[in-house]
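Reply to dn_fold:

You asked what the input looked like. This is it:
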Amino acid sequence: MAALYILIPVAVILVALAIWIFFWAVDSGQYDDLDGPAHSILFDEEDPKHRAGIEQADGRDEEKSDRG
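and this is what came back:
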């Protein structure tokens, strides 16, 4: 029974702390753009090899359409 006198206030403090951290994260903009970082790693256009591959593929597509 004595443990409840310690555990209940500790649990309430932990829940209050978790709620405060959540609202701090929302207010500071941590959840503003959830998709941007996930997509930026997939669509990295700054890589020269990637850019060269796209240009090469575009050139091939134009050659095929010119012949057809």
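The chain has a mean pLDDT of 80.
Hope that clears it up.
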